[in-house]
Every structure is written in structure tokens, then in C-alpha cells.
Amino acid sequence: MDGAPWPGAVAVSGGGDSLALMHLLAGWAKKTRRPAPVVLTVDHGLQRGSKSNAAKVARWARDAGLEAHVLRWEGPKPKSDIEAAARAARYRLMASWCRAHGIDALYAGHTRDDQAETFLLRLARGSGLDGLAAMRAVGDYPLADHAGLALVRPLIGFERAALRAHLTRAKLAWLEDPMNADPRFARVRMRAAMAALGLSAARVADAATHLARAREALEAVTEAVLRRACTREEGAVLADTAALAAAPREVALRALARILMGVSGQAYRPRFESLERLFDRIAQGSLGRGCTLHGCKIAPAGPGRLRFSPELGRKAGAQSALNRV
Fold first, then answer.
1. How far apart, in whole angstroms, are the C-alpha atoms of residue 265 and residue 320?
2. What is the band of 166 on the pLDDT scale with cuts at 50, 70, 90?
3. Mean pLDDT for the chain?
4. What is the CA radius of gyration of the chain?
5. Which of 55, 100, 111, 285 is the most exposed, having the fewest neighbouring CB atoms within 10 Å of its CB?
């Protein structure tokens, strides 16, 4: 994919989506004379037979001429919110392996169906524009402590049924995870709700794509505001408060979050309520001698200017906010 790092590792659960991706990437690498992908599969230890299923995935990968590794989730398992905990453990284990072996991208078999289900799950949680916008084909890794590792989704425009049809035609087997039919899990309930309402994955995914275009437009305007409002200083960023306050509120809040993240080196935004309170104090000129937020110290730096610097005891971020625009 354009802009995606290679060589890469591919996450394979054994389901039809990830196995189709494994075979497609292997074929693409061979045809273009690139290094073959490395297959990573995780034994969560949550179900009877999980160890043998992981071994089966590794065997299928090796039969396809690929290097394969089984990663095991050790230790006690949670009693609640198992789905989220298993996902976080999976991402953590695979990221650690990639980092240890100099791999800059993990390829995942997310499909248009996943896009639709994620949109509806986030809608139910009250997510804003960024949460509802479509998952990126090439995006940031979903763990804060693994910034710089890419998560690549080559199949995000394909439907699950088409991938299984491809495997069937090629006479390739896959595993059916019983968790995919277990109504205890929110994603399974969301699939049932979509079917009951007659919502197609394509229609819901299209809505997420429309919102992604809106997100891109806001990001472009935010970058323009940052270029106008900010200058760099050793280990810090100086911001023109009038330029921030004059921007539309949504844009100004995004710009402020970008400054805080860039200076502190944190991968995620501060809490929205805290961000709004800080912006209101800046816009109203009531910041006083300053404050701290999200690992940053914010203090006056002359008339109409603020200095954002790392909070005492913290190292400056690897990139300043201005390097991110």
C-alpha cells in the first residue's frame, strides 16, 4: 500500500479475514520480489483449544513458506470486558515483537464490516468526529507507548464475504472463532442489530468515510492555525494567544491538543473537559501565572504569548508540535 512501511508483520488469528490477508500479502511480496511478511498469531489462553489453534495457524503459515511466531498471553485473565482486554493484550504482544525485530508496520485484516461495526460501537459510546471517522488504511498504532509503529489495513475496502469466497475458491481453510457468535460480546450484538435493521456494512462504512473527509479538512485547517500561531524555542513552543482564540472553537481545541501532545511526547489527547477549560482560560485571558496539563507547563511568555514546555521531571517529546504540521 502507498506509504506503508515494508517489510511488515501480519496479524493472523486464523479467521477468514486475516488468513486471506496472509496469503494475499505473501503472493504480493513474491510477485514484487519483496521480503515475505512475518506471521504473528496470539494464543490468548481464553478458550479450550486455543493453543492448538495457534499452532495450526503457524503451520498454515509455514506451509505457505512464511516465517511464523506464536505469542502467548501469560498471567491471569480478566473476568469482565474480556474482548477489550484480549485486544489490548494482542496489540501489546505483537508490537513488542515488532519493536524487538526492527519491524515498522503490523498488517491487520480489518474489513469494511469491521469499519461499520466500529462506527456503530463508537456511536453507541457517544464518540465525536474523530472516533466516528473511518479507520485509516495506514494509521497510528493503537497503543500510546508504541508511537511510530504503523497499523496497516489493506483490506479495509473489502467485505468479509468476498474474502471467504476467495479462500473457498483457492481451497484454503480457516478457523471459525466461537467468540464471533457469542452474544456476550458487544461486536456480536452489533452485527445482530445491523441485520435486524437491514443496515448494510457498505452503507454504514460509507458514513464513516464521509466523516473521515471532514476530519481531514479539519486537520488541514488546524495545521494552518498552528503554523500561524506557533514558533519554536529550545525544548518548548511559543503560542500567540490571539491567533488561537480567533480560530473556530473546534479547530482551536485541536490545535491546543496538538501543542500539548507534541511538547509532552504523549500519543493521546488530554481529556476533552480539561482541554476545554484550558482553552477557555486562554481565550479569556485568565490563565494567571500558568498551569500544567498533559505533561506540559503552560506559562505567560510576554504580552499575548504563552510558552508550552515539558513539565518538570519529564523529558521533552521527540517531536515538537511544529514538527507535526
1. 8
2. very high
3. 89
4. 22
5. 100
Identify the architecture of domain 9-199 in CATH. 3-Layer(aba) Sandwich (3.40)
pLDDT for position 314: 52
With cut-offs at 50, 70 and 90, classify the pLDDT of residue 64. Answer: very high
For residue 152, give every residue at least 6 positions away whose Cβ sits within 8 Å of its Cβ, in sequence order, or none: 1, 4, 5, 8, 105, 106, 107, 108, 137, 138, 139
* Rounded Cα–Cα distance for residues 156 and 315 (Å): 37
The residues pairing with 309 across neighbouring beta strands, listed in sequence order, are: 297
8 A C-beta contact, residue 323 and residue 231: no
Give the pLDDT mean for 2-6: 86
Identify residue 4 by its one-letter amino acid code: A
Amino acid at 153: R
Which range (19-23, 34-38, 69-73, 189-193) has the least confidence? 189-193
Q: How far is Cα 302 from Cα 291, in angstroms, rounded to an integer?
A: 16
Domain ranges of the chain: 9-199, 229-324
pLDDT digits (tens, 9 = 90+) for 277-309: 999 999 999 999 999 999 999 999 999 999 999
Q: How many whole angstroms separate alpha carbon 217 and alpha carbon 180?
A: 36
- Grid cell in block for residue 256: 491546543
Round to whole Å and give the CA distance between 129 and 123: 10
- Distance of alpha carbon 146 from alpha carbon 160, whole angstroms: 28
3-state secondary structure 191-244: HHHHHHHCCCHHHHHHHHHHHHHHHHHHHHHHHHHHHHHEEEECCEEEEEHHHH
Q: Residue 316 has which C-alpha cell?
A: 521533552
| CA 30 and chain centroid, separation | 28
* Interatomic CA distance for residues 129 and 44, integer angstroms: 32
Identity (one letter) of the amino acid at 155? L
Q: Is 307 helix (H, G, I), strand (E, B) or coil?
A: strand
